[in-house]
Amino acid sequence: MIVTRFAPSPTGYLHIGGLRTALLSYLWARRNNGKFLLRIEDTDFSRNDEAAALAIVEAFKWVGLEHDGTIEYQSSRLAIYQEYAQKLLDSGKAYKCYMSREELDALREEQSARKERPKYDNRYRDFTGTPPEGREAVIRIKAPLEGSITVHDGVKGDVVFNVADILDDFIIARADGTPTYNFVVAVDDALMGVTDVIRGDDHLSNTPKQIVVYEALGFPIPRFFHVPMIHNHEGKKLSKRDGATDVMMYKEMGYAPEALLNFLVRLGWSHGDQEIFSMAEMLELFDPNDINRSASVYNVEKLDWLNAHYIKNTPNDKLCELLEFHGVMLVSHDKREILLDALKERSKTLVEMAAQINEILVRPAAFDEAALKKGYKEESKAILMSFAEALKNSAELHLPSDYHHVMESIVAQLEIGFGKIGQPLRIALMGKLSGPGLDTVMAIIGVDETLARIEALLKH
RNA sequence: GGCCCCAUCAUCUAAUGGUUAGGAUUCCAGAUUUUCAUUCUGGCCAUACGAGUUCGAAUCUCGUUGGGGUCACCA
To answer: Per the residue annotation, which of A35, A115, A156, A240 is the catalytic one?
Structure first.
């Protein structure tokens, strides 16, 4: 059985990069009828945040990811870590170190001055004497002193680390007894039965340390997949100052979760020339062994294109539901189908769509100056008046085509081009020179409102 | 700086050692549209550099350059 996990630290929200690794872990687990677990890495109490886990679950819910089992909080597993640290102590694979922070700092400074790599000097590794008075010990694990550690990575291949270059007897429990990251990650992943660790490649250099823990405890080592980072336009790791990194902001901005997931799954992974992936297709096709080795740049244009695609292909009922979040209530609107059909083709986001709906439904408060200059001439008034007359004399105007016929008749009657009536009418209806088809707009707002808007322009 | 990773159009990516290096997004042009958008058609644009292996290299090897990550009693 394949067991994957998502293990964020509680930062208060779900990061877009986090969502990607969560998605990939989720896909791989589900594809194999395995389990996808969620664990909150909150061993650092100084930044613990209860609401953070909730924020992650909320974001998961929005995009449709679901974890299995209960959420594990590392802060509530302290006894477990203590137990395993004690096991290592008992078996002589770890030891207490009484070195003070000041001594450690001094050692590091000294080493740096000598242009050496700062590392612990193993002074308490084989210590048997009496410990110094009044000093709380940290627990250090005995790391190998020589040789190499190879990470077998499904994305990067075999990565070999020379022990002398990167390791020392690192701390697994602080002086206050709380465990440290590399220790708890390994313990938890092992205890939770995680078989496939899919995470950002910023963790690659931590992996040898975790392997040391796995081996000391006799746990089987999982498969690793270190997926490349998402970069910003400067080529750096995506961070808060790049704008939208909180997943829930995408909801605010009017993105469909399907579009966001589709976008993320294509970053560093592909299946031939296919661009559009439904959740079902991702589930069927995704394999972490196919992930690219190189980092990718986060570009919004493609996300916008995908989002537009999903909006176009969303049924109107569903669209109606989604638009409520953006303040648009259409359930009882009798021309709702015409309205949505017209606008879903022209919106990149739901926010845009909501704005466009309001532009149609709400009478223009003002007329765009440039538009008036360009499209509202002296002759326009007479044309608009004729059109208004024709509307009043027409019965049973419902569909866009009904209005279109009226426009055609006026154009023929006055022997003018469509633009002669189109431009002023557009200004009257929308207050500007762009927008959906005029016949559609009129069908949506109805004859009375159309006449009122023409009237308003003529009085302007 | 040490260690590790990475390198195909601007961007996301495809290409059993043999393709006119393909697709998508962006951009540009044309068509459709009363307008804008959509849609359709077309166009511009890439194997970082240098050696080597090979009949043949984007692909394998080495080097150079460039970029990124990581080096805590943070996670």
So the answer is: A240
